[in-house]
Specification:
The structure is a single chain. The protein has 198 residues and is of the alpha/beta class. The protein has two domains: 121 residues, HAD superfamily/HAD-like (Rossmann fold); 69 residues, Orthogonal Bundle (DNA polymerase, domain 1), CATH 1.10.150. A five-stranded parallel sheet has the order 5-4-1-6-7, with helices on both faces.
Length: 198
Amino acid sequence: MSHHHLVVDLGGVLFRFHHAHRLQRLAAAFSLAPDRVDELLWRSGFSSDSDSGRYTDAAEVRDRIRAVTGFAGSDELLDTSWCSAFSPDHSVRDVLELHRGSRSLTLFTNNGPLEEEVLPRLYPEMFDGFGQLLFSYRLGHRKPDPAAFDAASKRLGASPDEVLFIDDSPANIEAARTLGWTALRFRGPQTIEQAGCH
């Protein structure tokens, strides 16, 4: 059966991902050490909880970040600092458009409501052409949990053999293949070109 759905990851595929840069930006905004920011917002489980659906909207995430860090600045500074880990890779976006063929294009990412609200606002051109944006917090599960892939399949209305999936995480690729998705590990725009042959 041909692959009717091309599903790609956000951080590490459509966008370059730089967590250390984000920690530096947040540290400057919060007047805290980067390691302290990492402790409060990542090692504490907060970011994972956000990705898993514990917080229902971006405002709730902002409120929680402010409560934990004492940040009293603007939403704009908070939003841009939080999302500064992501920088758009326009070469990937261009190659996706060239090689997607007639397949629907879907984003499937482990991220929460703040990223869902802010990133399309900051980089609208990167999200053009996507039929669905599947953020993990809406699915209630994060990759590589099989439940996340099951939920994504249901949202797509697709059987596993109709899906071609591109992600940079070996664990996510393995989970997708176990569930019957065709999966390619992203190693650069050439992976998208290879996808055009499937």
